[in-house]
Write a structure and sequence with these properties.
The complex is a heterodimer.
Chain A (H helix, E strand, L loop, with lengths): L1 E8 L4 H14 L3 E7 L8 E9 L14 E4 L21 E4 L5 H7 L6 E3 L11 H11 L6 H12 L7 H15 L30 H4 L20 E5 L10 H5 L5 E3 L5 E3 L9 H5 L5 E5 H6 L5
Helix pairs in contact in A: 1-3, 1-4, 3-5, 4-5
Chain B lengths: L1 E6 H11 L4 E4 L6 H12 L6 E4 L3 H12 L6 E4 L1 H6 L1 H10 L4 E6 L13 H5 L6 E4 L3 H16 L7 E6 L7 E6 L2 H7 L25 H33 L6 E4 L6 E4 L4 H14 L4 E6 L1 E3 L3 H8 L4 E6 L9 H10 L8 E6 L9 H17 L6 E2 L3 H15 L10
Parallel strand pairs in B: 2-3, 4-5, 5-7, 6-7, 10-11, 10-13, 13-14, 14-15
Antiparallel strand pairs in B: 1-8, 6-12, 9-11
Helix pairs in contact in B: 1-2, 1-7, 3-5, 10-13
Classes of the chains: A alpha/beta, B alpha/beta.
Amino acid sequence: MYRIRFHGRGGQGMKTAGRILGTAFFLAGFEVQDAPRYGAERRGAPIFAYVRASRNPIFERGIISRPDLIIVADDHLPAMPGSGVLAGAGEQTVFLIYSNEEASLWQERLNLQGSVFTLPPLAENELRFRGAACAGGAAALLAELDVELLAEAVREEIDPLGSELVADNLEVALAAYAALAVNRGTVHEGGPVSAIDYASPDWLKLPCEETLLSAPAIHAPATSEMSQTGLWRSERPLIDESRCKRCWWICSTFCPDGAIQVDEERRPHIDYGHCKGCMVCLNQCPTHAITAVPEEEAAAQGEKP
Amino acid sequence: MNRKLLTGNGAAAWGARLARIDYLPAFPITPQTEIIETLSNWIEGQELECRMVTLESEHSMLTAAGAAAVTGVRVFTATSSQGLLYAAEMLYTVAGWRVPLVLVNVSRGLSSPITLEPDHNDVLAMRDCGFLQLHCATCQEVLDNLLIAYRLAEHPRVRLPVLVNLDGFYLSFTREPVQIPSQREVDRFLPPFEAGSISFRGGEPLSEGVTVLEGSAYSYFRYQAHLASLEGIAVYEELGQEFAKLFGWDYSALECYCSEDAEIVLVMIGSFATKAKEAVDRLRETGRKIGLVRPRLVRPFPVAALRQALAGKKGVAVIDQNLSPGKGGILHGELASVLYGTPEAPAVLASFVGGLGGRDISSEEFFEIHKVVQRAVATGITPEPQLLYTEEELRSLRKMQSVARAVRSNQGGGA
């Protein structure tokens, strides 16, 4: 059975990527199971999707703990706490990382034992089609999936989202496939877990503990400040001081995360550690003093977060 | 027949569509909403002729569903978790009206603490309301059991509402290959509802759910609902056979997997049971005589079939994806009452509680359950109930607790 995991951020099309690959396998005659996995839906937060494909009926369910292929759609993710990108990776696990950096660098940086490939950004406006690119790249590494199956799967999955989107997604997926086609068949199907020499789960007898500890309560405020939700941002709101009329309240009041503070001189300051990049401020500012800049571009321009 | 990849929610929507539902009262809740979204798209696109009404709560939604069912139309609705509990009063009430309707519940653990992930405490909290309960393990079962559910609910010997349960995430958002029958094929199994006496109209007054202020009449009506529910077992079996003739695969109140010659049997409900099947296959490869018994019907409970399937087994492990605080796994208690005092009852009936709030159950844990029960069979000592919870999980919980209890001078309000 193939066990494949896509990691990305909410909004980067990982659910779509999983569905494209799942459908390609299904069209190739495989039994398939695919699903996205996220908590409360949050744009920019780490999410993943998984695909199982087998010639036999699939009884396994839920999160894949021993992946044969891991696709990472955002190269900031491996360093992000809780993204779980590396979970269960072993010697046979192939990595495909959407990144401009060298595969060997990632191999070393993440101490990966299996093969590593990178998928550099392929087209100018490809950000919108990252899911299709990841699905195309993944398909290229799988011996059973050819270009025709991939194309048909892209059409089947994208058409319901808007037929005008099919051509662009198709172009990106096929380009990614072409870029990696030389590595076709690199990913191998993993076997089942052995019922003989398995690692016993270290179950414990849960003790009864005092209520202060055992009730689901948080006893001090501001724990959300410890979570750097700014890492979820894909676009950064920038305030143009020359256009800001110092109204003192609009952007800061509308910010759903309370991430904009106004100082005594009525200047707004964005807390980029917690701004998720929702752009509500941009839409509310009456003088259009706020602009959205892609996070990578802002970082490249040396804008300090 | 068209084989397609569908989510559990998509399969539920297809089931409702192919049942040619007339009325759809709706209120959104994760992880159910996709069912209503799919149906509303079809209604808007005129692919489904159905009246959809959005209500202000699940309580009103169930009231509307029951009120519509009294008029003899085919009614479908869906909810989950907190929504099911908010509608609880009306589930009991509508069941007492003795009219057919089908309610899908997408299982999700209950607050507090709040979660979106699945377990069975929501649906089992409604165990005693009078609705029949069908529990699905695959997306295919969701579609098929929706069709069967209407036949069951509308059957003259039953005439009770039916709840079809599917697990959040593990089925609701998971795509699997599903055979979608054609409308013509479905019409042969599920023809339009001949409502007969269920025909409330504005011009023909009727009192539903009347007041009975003395216990004798109350006992009669409640017990009649119980007897009708029990009829549901035989009716489900009949329908399962009829379904097989038309579609090629059958349904039974119990799914028995490798259990006939098994010495140790796992008992569980819902989608995690397919994980148990995987573990059974692996253990069978090593020569272990293990099987799985999965009730599809939880109400009515297939008591006779369970006794038969488990007679003479050495050990049974009941894996509960629910918890009754102060007692333990709910199914374990149900199985004990099924087996107690029967001549060939298994000596070991062990209780495992796992999968709460969507917590996964690994293959290794199924192997370990087998090992624990095998040891119990050898020693004759039934083990204490075991929560599937590891040292590693407790360590990571301790981190959360340290954050939750820390004294912080920072009171929030920005960096």
